[in-house]
Write a structure and sequence with these properties.
The protein is an alpha+beta fold. The chain is built from 15 helices and 31 strands. The strands form nine sheets. It has a five-stranded mixed beta barrel. Strands 6-7-8-10-9 form a five-stranded mixed barrel.
């Protein structure tokens, strides 16, 4: 810390002689950024007082320099440069500090300085802020801070505020919190925007004319982009020909360009109820790369031939130009298939809708034979008012139209993986490995506690899990078994080697169908371009050399986005329920930990914590093997799958935390334990053998029912 302050003091003295605010002083403190898509290292100045965009600084370490990690601070000598993507080049003078811990929280102003209360549910430690490190933040304001020193005399670590983020209760602050908390880049550099806006529409040169195909897009009614189109043709032998056309993003995003580096850095788009943080600027994602109705758009398309049993017997890839017949919503397409077309779909019924549903019927029969994991998890839809407040929480309806698009996309992804493997081209596979034995054992215990069975002693296949899911279908345990099965799965990831996809029951799988929002798909598109000799915008040598690094990086950015999206949903649900504190609710126990139980509430699907102190009037012991909490006096068992009635005692929108109090377990109140207060702090033990026997008899009667 002392060295950093000394360095900053040097800079202040130099600034007195360096008056142009639009330029950086020749010696300054920088923070190292993560490598870009080309592997180059850039840094940002800790202070920028200019009104224009912050300059980009290329850091070129010498062989003698120590290795610096992302976020590390160092004193550097700057030289003005005239590179295409940077204004300065930096040379290391002295390492200052390691990467500081970052905190996002609510600032509480005090007489001298203040405190930061972290918004992360997993952090309960506050941070102390000195008066000179508040950046002028007001009490109650959301801030981003970094660690500034060890614990002080009050036992709290020190932090300095580096950015003020505004009112945490503002309607649109919910997703902003997640963006900053997880470090998701949400502003495009000026050069990236300029490069996107300078792009011109692709021409027919070197492309096949696919404009006569009956291709349509089918998306959610509120879709922000349209990057895939589908068509079906019924064949005389009862089979079908399927076309899947995907926006040709690779034509616009060339290897090594500013657009490419930024897309690599982001890895994928991140979706929130009130906004999207896109992988590509709007000029591409919402315009040139979006397959708008009636507009010529460049695509990479795959033609797949199915036999009468739904098996793919052949496929071919094409680089062409298409023109969408219609931009349909899932609801529109489904209504037309059900015999209720509207003005837009009526003319398409025979030429588009019926052939698509015929092809879907074939794919469905093939899927039933393949037996991929058949999870049926309701997707929550958070509806916001115009000012960004939660209006309602519903579950999205699952239609055959959704399943049709899913099956078409899966088949196209399989074709891409097979094609590139046949051509021996480097690519990124989508890998999903088998679950561990420990996780399957835990799933088996939940199944048994719910009255179902999952066979032991055999090589696990998705068909075994599907039989378990079928047992629970239509019962009170349906959602619990689906969620627990999902949690038992390993997390899918990207890898240059093919290890198969367990969940889909496929030997070879790659992501090809969403290059607007996933960098993995852009890599696959480039590999197809190179493999077919379609142009010079395919895989570069740098792409190939960094394939493993790219796979690791985009797997991490995907997890980052998933965590941010999940946290945002939790915060919106907490905001929605904040006015209902004190209300009784029903739910089911979805998890057990040493500190309490997690409850999935019926109405909203929200997850709340039932602290162990609020379960009953006795001590509860945690049995990790059985995944149960067991009462020390009564022996009553609290476990996964049980129905509960709870009272909402706390809802904290800024963290997304819900706290619950148990009222009934399986329809009955927990027994009163003589001599114990609410939190079970009694100095004596009370024998309750007769009461325990009565409770166990009641549990047995309920199981029989």
């Amino acid at each position: 810390m002392l060295k950093e302050l000394e360095a900053e003091g040097q800079l202040e003295r130099r600034r007195r002689h360096y008056l142009d605010p639009e330029k950086l002083p020749p010696v300054t403190v920088l923070e190292l950024l993560p490598p870009d898509g080309s592997g180059d290292l850039f840094a940002r100045p800790l202070e920028w007082r200019g009104e224009g965009p912050m300059p980009r600084i290329l850091f070129t370490p010498r062989e003698s320099d120590p290795a610096l990690g992302q976020g590390e601070r160092f004193l550097a000598r700057l030289v003005e440069a005239h590179g295409e993507d940077h204004q300065y080049e930096a040379r290391l003078m002295r390492r200052i500090t390691a990467a500081p811990n970052r905190i996002v929280g609510v600032f509480r102003k005090e007489t001298e300085g203040g405190r930061i209360v972290p918004i992360d549910k997993g952090q309960d430690r506050e941070w102390r802020v000195r008066p000179d490190a508040t950046l002028g933040a007001e009490s109650g304001e959301l801030v981003q801070a970094e660690q500034a020193g060890p614990k002080n005399r009050l036992g709290l670590p020190l932090a300095r505020i580096v950015e003020r983020l505004g009112d945490p209760s503002a309607p649109r602050a919910v997703s902003l919190i997640a963006i900053h908390q997880h470090g998701i880049p949400d502003e495009f550099p000026g050069k990236v925007i300029a490069e996107a806006e300078a792009q011109k529409s692709a021409t027919m040169k070197g492309r096949e004319d696919l404009c006569d195909l009956p291709l349509v897009t089918i998306d959610p009614a509120d879709a922000r982009d349209h990057d895939d189109a589908v068509a079906g043709l019924i064949e005389e032998d009862g089979g079908a020909t399927i076309w899947v056309a995907i926006a040709d993003v690779a034509h616009y995003v060339r290897p090594g360009s500013a657009l490419d580096r930024e897309a690599w850095n982001r890895g994928n788009s991140t979706y929130f109820p009130d906004r999207v943080v896109p992988m590509l600027p709007e000029a591409l994602s919402a315009d040139l790369c979006s397959l708008h109705e009636g507009e010529d758009r460049p695509v990479i398309a795959v033609r797949m031939r199915l036999d009468a049993q739904g098996n793919k017997v052949s496929h071919t890839f094409h680089r062409g130009m298409m023109n969408s017949r219609a931009s349909l919503s899932y609801g529109q397409a489904q209504a037309a298939a059900d015999g209720k077309p509207d003005e837009q779909t009526a003319p398409l019924l025979d030429s588009v809708i019926k052939p698509l549903w015929h092809a879907y019927g074939l794919l469905k029969s093939a899927r039933d034979r393949r037996q991929p994991l058949d999870l049926d998890l309701p997707e929550r839809r958070i509806e916001l008012t115009e000012d960004g407040r939660v209006k309602s929480v519903n579950f999205r309806e699952r239609l055959d139209a959704h399943r049709l698009i899913e099956e078409f996309m899966v088949l196209a992804n399989v074709a891409a993986a097979e094609e590139l493997s046949r051509r021996q081209r480097p690519l990124l596979f989508r890998v999903h490995e088998e679950p561990s034995l420990d996780k399957i054992d835990a799933l088996r215990e939940v199944a048994q506690a719910s009255g179902f069975t999952l066979a032991k002693g055999q090589v696990l296949q998705t068909s075994h899990l599907n039989r378990l899911l079928a047992q629970s279908e239509g019962t009170d345990f349906d959602e619990l078994i689906n969620i627990t099965t999902l949690r038992s799965m390993t997390q899918a990831y990207y890898h240059p080697e093919n290890f198969g996809h367990f969940g889909l029951a496929l030997k070879s799988y790659a992501h090809f169908t969403s290059p607007i929002r996933r960098y993995s798909d852009l890599v696959v598109h480039r590999a197809l371009i190179t493999g077919h000799g379609w142009g010079k915008d395919g895989l570069s040598e740098g792409d190939i050399e960094r394939m493993q690094e790219t796979a690791t990086h985009i797997s991490e950015t995907e997890r980052r986005s998933m965590a941010a999206e999940r946290d945002t949903t939790d915060r919106y649900l907490a905001a929605y329920l904040a006015d209902r504190v004190g209300t009784e609710m029903t739910g089911r126990i979805s998890g057990i930990q040493r500190f309490g139980a997690f409850i999935k509430l019926d109405e909203t699907g929200a997850d709340g914590l039932l602290p162990i102190r609020d379960i009953g009037q006795e001590y509860f012991h945690f049995d990790p093997d059985a995944q149960k909490l067991i009462g020390a006096d009564t022996g009553i068992e609290v476990g996964v799958g049980q129905r509960v009635t709870v009272r909402l005692t706390e809802a904290v929108p800024v963290t997304g935390g819900l706290t619950l109090e148990l009222l009934e377990l399986e329809g009955e109140a927990l027994p009163h334990v003589p001599g114990r207060g609410k939190r079970g702090r009694s100095p004596r033990r009370v024998s309750t053998k007769s009461r325990l026997a009565e409770i166990k008899r009641a549990q047995k009667r309920r199981r029989k029912k």
